[in-house]
Amino acid sequence: MDRGERSSGAGTGAAPKQVCPHFQGAVELIGRRWSGAILYTLADEGPLRFAELKETVPGMSDRLLSTRLKELESEGLVRREVLDGPGVGVSYSLTEKGASLKPVMGSLTDWAREWHRA
Amino acid sequence: MDRGERSSGAGTGAAPKQVCPHFQGAVELIGRRWSGAILYTLADEGPLRFAELKETVPGMSDRLLSTRLKELESEGLVRREVLDGPGVGVSYSLTEKGASLKPVMGSLTDWAREWHRA
């Protein structure tokens, strides 16, 4: 990470540059309550139906799961597909953009297992 | 990621296993509003004083920055140090645990630059 132009005086005193907005947008998107869990499950087990997804995260309400899925769909991370066959069925899976988060989730899982005993 | 014991029937129908609680705890910790930005800045520019940190994230209030710093300190990611010298001074930096998040933040930054134009 380069520091670009900044005033002299290392550490305190110099004006720090602003945080990368792409990073901030991404971390707050996947870090929203349950969003990371939904992405993790779909990466690992998708495609899944709504009820199956709900089982993977204890304590998540139908309403919140539905809201999060719509957000992730609108961000292009999750694909919603109506299933053929008898009865009504909808499945959720990761898009290419969503699947490209797998290395990030893997690296965060490794960190969490080592450092962050939840 | 192994699937462990599960009923037969790939995709829909089988019971998915529950999401890794370490991953979920970690992603929601760093994804909390401004937390990722604070960690990113301290990784890149720390140690920093409160006012310097505040400059790096436009729109963040003193109150919220203070709350987030206390949370990150209590999680063992951020170290608060009182500076010697004239006047009152406090600086914030990453602990070893916080610094070990750098590869995760790097991998998320790469993803965000490629996929998530904020």
Show the helix and strand layout:
The structure is a homodimer of 118-residue chains.
Chain A: H1 21-30, H2 35-45, E1 48-49, H3 50-56, H4 62-74, E2 78-82, E3 90-94, H5 96-99, H6 102-115
Antiparallel strand pairs in A: 1-3, 2-3
Biggest interface goes to: A-B, 61 and 61 residues
Helix content of chain A: 40-55%
Strand content of chain A: 5-15%
Instruction: State the shape of chain A.
Output: globular
Main β sheet profile of chain A: 3 strands, antiparallel
User: What oligomeric arrangement do these chains adopt?
Assistant: homodimer
- Which fold does the CATH topology of chain A refer to? Arc Repressor Mutant, subunit A
Q: State the low-pLDDT regions of chain A, or none.
A: 1-12
Q: Tell me the count of domains of chain A.
A: 1
As laid out across the biggest beta sheet of chain A, the strand order is 1-3-2
Fourth-tier CATH superfamily name of chain A: Winged helix-like DNA-binding domain superfamily/Winged helix DNA-binding domain
Distance between the termini of chain A: 30 Å
Total DSSP E strands of chain A? 3
- CATH architecture name of chain A: Orthogonal Bundle
Q: From the helix content, strand content and strand pairing of chain A, which structural class follows?
A: mainly alpha
Main CATH class of chain A? Mainly Alpha
* Radius of gyration of chain A, in angstroms, nearest whole number: 19 Å
Calculate the mean pLDDT score of chain A and round it.
Answer: 85
Counted by DSSP, the helix tally of chain A is 6
Order of helices and strands of chain A: HHEHHEEHH
